[in-house]
């Protein structure tokens, strides 16, 4: 749990916190910065945009695998050094993408990008777990969530501007340079974040940790909450290029500007939960309210004609406030659970999140969901399910074994 000694800190140094915030941007930059160039990439690689959207799903599959592998290896190796190595792998994947002549090496490069760079999602939180006093973790976790929420908005915008001046291959080269730079910053500013008793878990102990996690009802609740809101948000990210091009003819920098606003809702939810006196109560309220908004989104998709793009974005911006609040709430709750092999349990936690998003996006892409009705349905459904699950547990949990966790 610690960084090699028995004491925790209340906060990171400014340099360490800034480094963590920069590093945790890598997964979302890798995911979204290239999206505005999809039309040009499709032309160069002789494929269509719908086929390129599958590379986003492949990226998420690598993202999911990285969560579990990163958490597993962190039981023995320093989380900071693992993160630095992962960013080098991210750079190698970016170079492979830059020199791809077809969609197949591009897909392999995207997978490598995710496998290396996205380890930040679990490793940065393990660094917080091992370095920061439990009573003070919600602030750095919320900071990470706010940066993560803004990056998917800023990345398409930056990518859209870059696409006006540079070929898409140059964008991947910039990502490679960024990965190397962030790796050096990790080694220079983050110090050490070792497990108390570093050792690579045996198969038996790994399976035991997985079993203990999956039999813990609070762990299951936090995992489900995180997975469902991520399915909603990532489902929108994955479907948005085809949706806006097909229905509104929006691509490039215009797409990047439009995608800024849903992430503002995500960011605002994270900001609110960071500054509220009772984060758990706020998260539960946001789950309820966002579920009602999701129901409204679903009904609008079913009965309304095609709405202007800005109206769709405004509605989803409101819905995603719940995403921004639920993510740090669920992460903070999971980190506080007294489970064996915390690296394994944390890696599994984020694996469930990312694999849920990847599978959900794959299902949506298999239906070629680009219509107004289908996209809104895919985006709304997970948060509506979460709201209904919360209501059901709250109503019947009092007489059973489990209540929704209410720890501050």
UniProtKB/TrEMBL annotation:
<dbReference type="InterPro" id="IPR036259">
    <property type="entry name" value="MFS_trans_sf"/>
</dbReference>
<feature type="transmembrane region" description="Helical">
    <location>
        <begin position="310"/>
        <end position="329"/>
    </location>
</feature>
<feature type="transmembrane region" description="Helical">
    <location>
        <begin position="56"/>
        <end position="73"/>
    </location>
</feature>
<keyword id="KW-1003">Cell membrane</keyword>
<feature type="transmembrane region" description="Helical">
    <location>
        <begin position="140"/>
        <end position="165"/>
    </location>
</feature>
<feature type="transmembrane region" description="Helical">
    <location>
        <begin position="171"/>
        <end position="190"/>
    </location>
</feature>
<feature type="transmembrane region" description="Helical">
    <location>
        <begin position="219"/>
        <end position="240"/>
    </location>
</feature>
<feature type="transmembrane region" description="Helical">
    <location>
        <begin position="285"/>
        <end position="304"/>
    </location>
</feature>
<keyword id="KW-1133">Transmembrane helix</keyword>
<keyword id="KW-0812">Transmembrane</keyword>
<dbReference type="GO" id="GO:0005886">
    <property type="term" value="C:plasma membrane"/>
</dbReference>
<dbReference type="Pfam" id="PF07690">
    <property type="entry name" value="MFS_1"/>
</dbReference>
<protein>
    <submittedName>
        <fullName>MFS transporter</fullName>
    </submittedName>
</protein>
<feature type="transmembrane region" description="Helical">
    <location>
        <begin position="252"/>
        <end position="273"/>
    </location>
</feature>
<dbReference type="GO" id="GO:0022857">
    <property type="term" value="F:transmembrane transporter activity"/>
</dbReference>
<feature type="transmembrane region" description="Helical">
    <location>
        <begin position="85"/>
        <end position="104"/>
    </location>
</feature>
<dbReference type="InterPro" id="IPR020846">
    <property type="entry name" value="MFS_dom"/>
</dbReference>
<feature type="domain" description="Major facilitator superfamily (MFS) profile">
    <location>
        <begin position="16"/>
        <end position="400"/>
    </location>
</feature>
<keyword id="KW-0813">Transport</keyword>
<feature type="transmembrane region" description="Helical">
    <location>
        <begin position="375"/>
        <end position="398"/>
    </location>
</feature>
<dbReference type="InterPro" id="IPR011701">
    <property type="entry name" value="MFS"/>
</dbReference>
<keyword id="KW-0472">Membrane</keyword>
<feature type="transmembrane region" description="Helical">
    <location>
        <begin position="341"/>
        <end position="363"/>
    </location>
</feature>
């Amino acid at each position: 749990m610690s960084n090699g000694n028995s004491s925790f800190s209340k906060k990171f140094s400014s340099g360490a916190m800034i480094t963590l915030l920069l590093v945790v941007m890598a997964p979302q930059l890798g995911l979204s910065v290239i999206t505005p160039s999809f039309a040009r990439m499709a032309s160069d690689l002789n494929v269509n945009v719908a086929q390129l959207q599958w590379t986003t799903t492949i990226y998420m599959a690598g993202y999911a695998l990285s969560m579990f592998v990163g958490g597993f290896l962190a039981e023995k190796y320093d989380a900071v050094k693992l993160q630095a190595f992962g960013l080098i792998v991210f750079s190698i994947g970016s170079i492979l993408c830059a020199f791809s002549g077809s969609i197949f090496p591009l897909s392999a490069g995207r997978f490598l990008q995710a496998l290396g760079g996205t380890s930040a999602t679990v490793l940065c939180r393990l660094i917080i777990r091992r370095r920061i006093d439990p009573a003070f973790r919600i602030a750095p976790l919320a900071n990470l969530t706010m940066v993560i929420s803004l990056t998917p908005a800023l990345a398409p915008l930056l990518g859209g501007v870059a696409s006006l001046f540079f070929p898409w291959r140059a964008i991947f080269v910039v990502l490679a340079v960024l990965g190397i730079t962030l790796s050096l910053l990790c080694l220079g500013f983050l110090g050490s974040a070792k497990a108390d008793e570093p050792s690579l878990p045996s198969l038996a102990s790994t399976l035991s940790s997985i079993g203990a996690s999956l039999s813990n009802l609070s762990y299951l609740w936090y995992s489900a909450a995180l997975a469902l809101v991520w399915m909603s948000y990532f489902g929108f990210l994955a479907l948005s290029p085809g949706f806006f091009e097909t229905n509104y003819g929006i691509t490039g920098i215009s797409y990047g500007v439009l995608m800024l606003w849903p992430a503002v809702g995500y960011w605002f939810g994270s900001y609110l939960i960071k500054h509220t006196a009772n984060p758990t109560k706020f998260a539960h309220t946001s789950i309820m309210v966002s579920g009602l908004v999701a129901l409204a989104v679903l009904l609008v998709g079913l009965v309304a004609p095609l709405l202007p793009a800005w109206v769709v974005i405004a509605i989803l911006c409101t819905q995603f406030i719940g995403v921004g609040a639920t993510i740090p709430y669920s992460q903070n709750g999971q980190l506080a659970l007294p489970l064996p092999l915390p690296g394994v349990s944390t890696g599994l936690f984020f694996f469930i999140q990312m694999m849920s998003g990847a599978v959900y996006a794959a299902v949506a892409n298999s239906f070629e969901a680009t219509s107004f009705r289908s996209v809104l349905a895919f985006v709304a459904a997970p948060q509506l399910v979460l709201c209904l699950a919360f209501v059901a547990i709250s109503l019947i949990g009092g007489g059973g074994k489990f209540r929704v966790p209410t720890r501050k």
